[in-house]
Design a protein that fits this description.
By secondary structure, this protein is an alpha/beta fold. Helix content is 43%, strand content 14%. The protein folds into 3 domains: 64 residues, Orthogonal Bundle (Arc Repressor Mutant, subunit A), CATH 1.10.10.10; 158 residues, Aspartate Aminotransferase, domain 1; 242 residues, Aspartate Aminotransferase, domain 2, CATH 3.40.640. The strands form 4 sheets. The protein has an 8-stranded mixed β-sheet, sandwiched between helices. The chain has a 4-stranded antiparallel β-sheet with strand order 12-13-16-15. Helix 8 runs parallel beside helix 14. The two termini are 38 Å apart. About 1% of the residues have low confidence.
């Protein structure tokens, strides 16, 4: 950046922009306040404000209400984006896809090897660190709740599976998203894993086929296999999400196709946002072909946009959409609280829930109801999104600095992780084992599919604070990847 001529505020903006560009002012650092700028440069209030606003307009700073301005740094690293051609399976493969076999064992081996390793930097998970949650508010509310209901943890509720207060709170939450759900249609679950298990148990029989996005979250693959179902991978585009063309072929070639599972907003691991037109079309497609559409809406609160996207459920006119949301990553991981609204399968899922796990604890439901319904929750999300954005950009910058030529990634518009394509010759399963020996955990692409299609990809977490140790971990990963690429 060259020094700017012109008004003083432009010169000062250029001065601080160069400091950010050279990493003297690092991403996430707090900028001097308006008063400090006035004192330091002997300028007026107007000039100080113009300087900060110009830096914000240029993308160098972000304003946090009632807190101040913080350095954003370089928003987009100098890397090519991952191309859809690298992510999509050939359409012809849909007709001849075979069921998953052994995915549970393969993923369990990877998870267990990571658990036993001496991990110093964990880039494999995707849950925000404790420092990103409002623990003071949660603790205060939990204590108040137990004081109001001292027998809450000692009493048993033998009939209703979901507390009425939780139902009312989640119905209002759904209404804000454009979904009209009656409180009695809300069913509390233990996170999203139970919700997905209940949904697929209700709509499928052993041997039936479930269509999933490719790549997809490995926990879903494990769950499908554990139910004795067959999983069909459907190509997923970064621009529009799951391929309707491939789904149409699947309907014509897979007579036992019963359900489609999607994460429409910030798809895991791609970070895709499905456009409204595609959401509406997918809802109509499943209605036409009498398919259950299981929607995982757990990541939509992390989308960075002036308006939150609409869930697919808001287009559901026939009850074919089973809506599931986990509050694990937005509320409190320790509660494992989730909920679902199952449309035409509500009564069956309610029966299955009671038969399999009885009631979800009332304490976690009531705490979630108070938290989600409070203004503090939206303030928490407003603070959380920019902090996660900074951490994603820091990770992207580190990858751009340290990884070998040919590495590609795409910065998603929100979320907790990055999907990284490695150069030719670098296998993520090998990188995973080598990184563990260095005390670094990553998620290899092989975990997100039952094919070797993503062997040259890794998912790295941006959910934890970026530190010098984190940067060093990316440097080590880059060195290991470069050694593979050179062979």
């Amino acid at each position: 950046m060259t020094p700017a001529a012109g008004p003083l505020y432009q010169q000062l903006a250029s001065h601080y922009g160069q400091a950010i560009e050279k990493n003297t002012l690092r991403t996430g650092m707090r900028m001097p306040s308006v008063r400090e700028l006035m004192r330091r440069h002997r300028i007026s209030l107007s000039t100080a404000l113009q300087t900060l606003r110009l830096l914000e307009e240029r993308g160098w700073l972000e304003a946090r209400p009632r807190v101040g301005y913080f350095v954003r740094g370089i928003a987009v690293p100098p890397l090519e984006e991952v191309a859809d051609a690298d992510l999509s399976a050939p359409l012809e493969a849909v007709a001849g896809a075979h069921p998953f076999a052994g995915i549970n064992e393969r993923i369990s081996v990877l998870v267990e090897s990571a658990r036993r390793a001496d991990v110093k930097v964990d880039l494999g998970g995707a849950t925000p660190g404790p420092e990103l949650f409002d623990t003071a508010w949660l603790n205060k509310t939990a204590i108040a709740l137990l004081r109001e209901q001292p027998n809450l943890l000692a009493q048993s509720r033998s009939t209703a599976t979901t507390h009425p207060d939780f139902q009312a709170a989640m119905a209002l939450r759904a209404l804000d998203a454009g979904i009209r759900v009656a409180p009695h249609q809300v069913l509390a679950t233990v996170g999203n894993t139970e919700a997905m298990h209940l949904a697929l148990t209700a709509v499928c029989q052993p041997g039936d086929v479930v269509a999933v996005e490719s790549p997809t979250y490995y926990g879903l693959l494990q769950g499908v296999e554990s139910l004795g179902l067959k999983t069909l991978e459907i190509p997923c585009s970064q621009a529009s999400g799951i391929s309707l063309e491939a789904l149409d072929l699947a309907v014509r070639t897979q007579p036992r196709l019963r359900a489609v599972v999607v994460v429409p907003d910030l798809q895991m691991p791609l970070g895709t946002l499905m456009p409204d037109a595609q959401k509406a079309a997918l809802a109509a497609f499943c209605r036409t072909h009498d398919l259950a559409l299981v929607e995982d809406d757990s990541y939509r609160p992390f989308v960075e946009a002036n308006e939150r996207p609409r869930p697919i459920k808001s287009w559901d006119t026939s009850g074919h959409v089973v809506y599931c949301e986990s509050l694990n990553k937005t509320l409190a991981p320790g509660l494992r609280q989730g909920w679902m609204s199952a449309g035409r399968w509500h009564e069956r899922i309610q029966m299955l829930k009671f038969a399999q796990s009885r009631n979800t604890p009332a304490f976690s439901q009531l705490l979630a109801a108070r938290w989600v319904g409070a203004p503090a929750f939206e303030r928490h999300l407003q603070r959380l999104r920019p902090r996660l954005r900074v951490q994603r950009e820091q990770a992207a910058q580190a990858i751009a600095r340290h990884f070998p030529a040919g590495t590609r990634l795409r910065l998603p518009p929100g979320g907790l992780s990055l999907w990284v394509q490695l150069p030719a010759g670098v296998r993520s399963s090998v990188l995973f084992r080598e990184a563990l020996r260095e005390g670094i955990r990553i998620a290899p692409g092989a975990m997100f599919s039952n094919t070797d299609r993503y062997e040259h990809f890794i998912r790295v977490s941006c959910a934890q604070a970026f530190t010098e140790q984190t940067d060093e971990a990316y440097r080590v990963l880059g060195r290991l990847a470069a050694a593979q690429a050179a062979v």
